[in-house]
Design a protein that fits this description.
- The chain has 116 residues and is mainly α.
- The chain has one domain.
- The protein contains four helices and two strands.
- It has helices spanning 16-20, 23-56, 58-61, 71-115, and strands at residues 64-66, 69-70.
- Strands 1-2 form a two-stranded antiparallel sheet.
- Helix 2 (23-56) packs antiparallel against helix 4.
């Protein structure tokens, strides 16, 4: 007894597996990954460097820069600044490189659905 292949079309009749394998969708995923993964790795290295410094280089981290301000405090605040900078960079990148392509994909899917 042979098992029929699974139906990959949604109730509306669109083959979403084919859409996922389309050149435009693959390009969208590639663009997203090429931006997100390097920044994720860089931020995690930066974060763990801060954690390791605060754990094992306490003398360095407690070095006073001015008054009660220490290197550890400045690096901790830089973590917040880095987070906001990455967020702003991602939003800018998404607006320029991801959103136009995803709008094209969405428009194509909506046009296919309207034909039905």
């Amino acid at each position: 007894m042979s098992v029929p292949p699974p139906d990959t079309t949604a109730p509306g009749g669109i083959d979403y597996i084919a859409v996922e394998e389309s050149a435009s969708f693959v390009d969208l995923k590639r663009r997203h990954r090429s931006f997100v993964w390097p920044l994720t790795v860089a931020f995690l290295v930066w974060y763990f460097a801060y954690v390791l410094l605060s754990s094992f280089a306490t003398e360095f981290m407690s070095t006073r820069v001015s008054g009660y301000v220490t290197i550890g405090l400045l690096l901790g605040l830089a973590q917040f600044v880095t987070t906001f900078a990455i967020t702003m960079g991602y939003v800018s990148y998404a607006n320029r490189r991801l959103d136009p392509l995803s709008a094209e994909i969405r428009a194509d899917l909506e046009a296919r659905e309207a034909v039905r």
